Amino acid sequence: MFQYEFITNAFIAAGIVAIVSGVTGYFLVMRGQTFAGHALSHIGFAGATGAGLIGLSPLWGLVGFTLMAGIGMGLMSERISNRDVAIGVVLALALGFGLLFLHYYTAFASQATALLFGNVLAVDRDMIGALGALGAAVVVGLGVIMRPLIFATLQPELAEAKGVPMRFISTAFLAIVALAVAACAQIVGVLMVFTLMVGPGAATQRVTGGLWSGLAVAALLALGEAWLGIAIAFQTDWPVSFCIAVLSAIGYFAALMWPSAARHAH
Amino acid sequence: MPPIVELNHATITLGHRAVLRDISFSIEAGDFVGVLGPNGAGKTTLMRSILGLLPPTAGAVRVFGEAPKFGASTIGYLPQLRTVLPDLRVRGLDYIASSLHGERWGLPSLAAADRHSIEETLHAVGASDLARRSLSDMSGGERQRLLLAQALIGNPKLLLLDEPLISLDARHQEVVIDVVRRIARERGITVLFSAHELNQLLGAIDKVLYLGNGHAALGTVDEVVTAPVLSQLYGTEIEVLRAGGHIFVMSRGRDVEREAHQHDHDHGHSHGDHGHAH
């Protein structure tokens, strides 16, 4: 199947995005902020359609909106990202705006499905370059804040007492998540960012306790799900995002069954 | 030698409420001080002020004779609000390691010397086996011992333990008190140990610091736990009954400490946010 350029492109793009999503998702699950990641992707939908309306590239509309929303969430409070109702209201509002923008820019409507559910088979060389840049920014950003991020996540009260800038860390982290979400939405769509970002990270937390092994497992799991999903889609002609979603769910529920020392009674 | 902790007419404000008003006391080196008082009396606030997180709005707080230094390694701290992430399979060693130089940027790493000091303090509190076990696998008592070991890393001269007995059964409470007492004696550490009930601490503490109604009283148990002193602190008439080596602090025939403890069980566990003002 690699004789087709669009398949090669899809594998490269999905590979970049899967590794970035797996690593980011590992921390998102660790911090209990998966719902915030979900909300960011929906806010990105409004950004992408809004950008289409004023003639800009949907990708940069997506990046701009998720980034602003991520920074906003981080600045408002360290804990707002755990407030499910507030986030739910904001994400519904964002989807509503996305719909409004689509309403006024009907020519763009054909792209709505691609935005919502992803269209990895339409990725071109330019998009791979953009995804590579986003991915590099995410990895470098996480590398810089990883140490205080883990401390602030595991022991927030003590981290504050030791002088960790809590608000800055949580804001920077959500900004990084926003970039990862924007990249991820290009592959699986804004509605299914969970499949690559949260599924592998959550499965990993169940099977390994070590940091580096956890990051490696999360990245490889996301990569395996993305690539296998494309291969299955190629053979069956099913939508890629469907295949990835199924694999992600299988990965997560298999991890729940994983025989774990943590499961037995105290 | 200056006092380890000294408050001089200090007022400490949380939001718009002066939790502690015009407080003065000094704690000498090597003292094991039980910090008591009703919920909201300012036990956590006092500790956060000693850590430099809450500067006094009036007066002075001095630690080791100086204004508190933010993030000082000479103070070991065991916070009350312990965020427990239930499904996280972090090993004890990694959990503690995250706190060592956790404020630095970049990737986490664990130097051999740091690993050694973690293992050494775990051994000192009798919890060596916790290094390899995952946090989600530990009982409340084990987790508490892990946090105690963490607070002891770097050989602090002052230990601030905020409600380390909460949600432990009586046997584990005794173990925690004994371990703290023994290590504090061996290493000459000054300890502030906050708790809900005085009786658990009676055998261990040198002094008691009672907080209430914005005021504070520091002294031996016999000096402080008396009807006149506590009546003034609580702002209501208090009786102190002694029976069988126990002390009961009663208000209109009811045991005030026991009720405070019940109250905390009702609210303290359901939601982490409640604990901050204590």
Question: Can you offer a commentary on this structure?
Answer:
The complex is a heterodimer of chains A (266) and B (278). Chain A is mostly helical and 266 residues long. Chain A has 11 helices and no strands. Chain B is an alpha/beta fold and 278 residues long. In chain B, the strands form 3 sheets. Chain B has a 6-stranded mixed sheet, with helices on both faces. A 3-stranded antiparallel sheet of chain B has the order 2-1-4, covered by helices on one side. Chain B has a 3-stranded antiparallel sheet with strand order 10-11-12. In chain B, a hairpin with a 2-residue loop joins strand 10 (239-243) and strand 11 (246-251). Chain B is globular, with a radius of gyration of 19 Å. Residues 263-278 of chain B have low confidence and may be disordered. The interface between A and B is medium-sized, with 34 and 35 residues.
Strand and helix map with partners:
The complex is a heterodimer of chains A (266) and B (278).
Chain A: H1 5-30, H2 34-53, H3 58-76, H4 84-104, H5 112-117, H6 125-154, H7 156-161, H8 166-188, H9 193-207, H10 211-236, H11 240-257
Chain B: E1 5-14, E2 17-27, E3 32-36, H1 43-50, E4 58-63, E5 75-78, H2 92-99, H3 112-124, H4 140-152, E6 158-161, H5 170-187, E7 190-194, E8 207-212, E9 215-219, H6 221-224, H7 227-234, E10 239-243, E11 246-251, E12 254-255, H8 256-267
Parallel strand pairs in B: 3-7, 3-8, 5-6, 6-7
Antiparallel strand pairs in B: 1-2, 1-4, 8-9, 10-11, 11-12
Helix pairs in contact in B: 3-4, 4-5
